[in-house]
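Ticket #4471: structure export looks truncated?
Reporter: QA, pipeline team
Priority: medium

Steps to reproduce: submit the single chain below to the structure queue and open the exported record.
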Amino acid sequence: MNVKIDTKEKFTVITPIEANLSAIMTDELTKMLLPYQQKDIPHIVLNMDAVHQVDEIAGENIANLQQNFYEHDASFVICCLQPGVEAMLDKIEFLEVMNVTPTESEAWDIVQMEQIERELFDDEE
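Actual output as written to the record:
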């Protein structure tokens, strides 16, 4: 699976360079991204700007991947969904459980806010 990786100070932006994402491709994406949870900066922004079609299993895989990151105290925000992808995810009721923003800039803001929240909760314990 072809992706563009852009490492920032507080997160990494992963941008698939595929118009169609299949279940097999999202399996590859999962294998590629799970090791980020062990890095000093484990947070991911998944920029879906180039993706115009996602099958149902691929959508489920992305939702599961995002949940896995949150279970490991790492942010995973999806941005720039194309209308067809967004409609399909909404139809299979995954959109409501995903952390999705319209733009990459807003995704960055979410990652930074979630990091602040984690730091505050760690200080309280």
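Status: closed, not a bug. The export was complete when the record was re-opened. Leaving a note from the reviewer for reference: The chain is about 45% helix and 20% strand.
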